[in-house]
């Protein structure tokens, strides 16, 4: 071997060793971490996918995930958080069912020096009480839906019915506000009925049935805006049972982009959806690992994307692509 070749061999070996050490170190950041996750429940397809992906992400990174299903109750979430604090976990993930009422328990976590990361929903509390929030821009999602409808309807008069998410939850509050912003200034667009369907298919169907009855069997309704796809899917069923064609007689726009809404779009029964990624845990664990490694503090908001899909976006293909991804 020439001296030059010897030097090259030395540096190659050094580079490989550095990469290997780097990988081992990176794995070690997450491995062995104990993280408590207080999930809301399983009200929607999107929620179920978020749970699956959080468990997968934890397993991939060697994180010991303590999972607690709150069955839609804030009191169960608060109990779970207190139990995680008592166990001395390294961090807590929480998807807060409603926006208010968190100050006290968040103070307790802060006192115990346990970082808290909010997943997919925000809270009305001092930002110093949590490390970061991984969420989409919930107002923007509603605005995208409203602007799509305003553009699609043009100058025609259009009575809209709205299915709201869980009362008091940040997506219900923000998606309502955003949609109203999206249709602002269009006097021909009017929200004539608005009620909670609690983010579930069953309630979405039930409430849509009552809207249809109240609006001359649906003849006075031009569009449905649902704060999530599951409620839209339930409502589509109600529209069909009332003898009308969803997607044609009544336009349907919603939020989440779960596989089932793409099936409905492929069948012409839904018109548009705004995507919300169920992989909130990936960015949350990245932030946690960076913090554990060298104290790097993430920004207070890690924003995920909100993409609009319509019937023009090959919904059947998107359905095929999506259905394996945690749903
Ligand atoms: O917080 C996110 C919302 O919660 C999703 O859009 C909805 O499907 C879920 O239940």
TrEMBL record:
Q: Which Gene3D superfamilies match?
A: 3.40.50.2300
* Pfam families linked to this entry: Peripla_BP_4
Record's superkingdom?
A: Bacteria
Keyword Nucleus listed:
no
Where do the Periplasmic binding protein domain residues begin and end?
Answer: 36-280
SUPFAM superfamilies the UniProt entry points to: Periplasmic binding protein-like I
Cellular component terms per the entry's GO annotation? cell envelope
- What family is reported? Belongs to the bacterial solute-binding protein 2 family.
Q: PANTHER family annotated for this entry?
A: D-ALLOSE-BINDING PERIPLASMIC PROTEIN-RELATED, GALACTOFURANOSE-BINDING PROTEIN YTFQ
In Swiss-Prot or TrEMBL terms, this protein is called Periplasmic binding protein domain-containing protein
**Per the UniProt entry, what species is this protein from, by scientific name?**
Ciceribacter selenitireducens ATCC BAA-1503
């Amino acid at each position: 071997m020439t001296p030059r070749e010897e030097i090259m061999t030395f540096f190659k070996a050094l580079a490989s060793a550095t990469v290997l050490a780097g990988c081992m170190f990176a794995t070690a950041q997450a491995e062995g971490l104990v993280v408590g996750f207080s999930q809301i429940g399983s009200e929607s397809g999107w929620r179920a996918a978020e749970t699956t992906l959080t468990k997968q992400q934890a397993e991939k990174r060697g994180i010991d995930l303590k999972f607690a299903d709150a069955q839609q109750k804030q009191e169960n979430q608060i109990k779970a958080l207190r139990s995680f604090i008592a166990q001395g976990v390294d961090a807590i993930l929480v998807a807060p069912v409603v926006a208010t009422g968190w100050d006290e328990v968040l103070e307790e976590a802060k006192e115990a020096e346990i970082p808290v990361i909010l997943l997919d929903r925000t809270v009305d509390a001092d930002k110093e009480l949590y490390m970061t929030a991984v969420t989409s821009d919930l107002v923007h999602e509603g605005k995208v839906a409203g602007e799509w409808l305003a553009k699609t309807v043009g100058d025609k008069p259009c009575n809209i019915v709205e299915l709201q998410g869980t009362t008091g939850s940040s997506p219900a509050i923000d998606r309502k506000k955003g949609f109203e912003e999206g249709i602002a200034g269009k006097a021909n667009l009017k929200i004539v009925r608005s009620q909670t369907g609690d983010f579930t298919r069953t309630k979405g169907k039930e409430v849509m049935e009552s809207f249809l009855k109240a609006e001359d069997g649906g003849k006075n309704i031009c569009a449905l805006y649902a704060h999530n796809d599951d409620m839209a899917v339930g409502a589509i069923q109600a529209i069909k049972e009332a003898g009308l064609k969803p997607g044609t007689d009544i336009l349907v726009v919603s939020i989440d982009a779960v596989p089932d809404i793409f099936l409905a779009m492929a069948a012409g029964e839904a018109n548009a959806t705004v995507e919300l990624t169920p992989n909130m845990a990936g960015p949350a664990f990245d932030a946690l690992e960076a913090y554990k490694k060298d104290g790097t503090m993430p920004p207070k908001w890690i924003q995920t994307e909100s993409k609009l899909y319509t019937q023009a976006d090959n919904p059947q293909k998107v359905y095929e692509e999506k259905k394996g991804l945690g749903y």
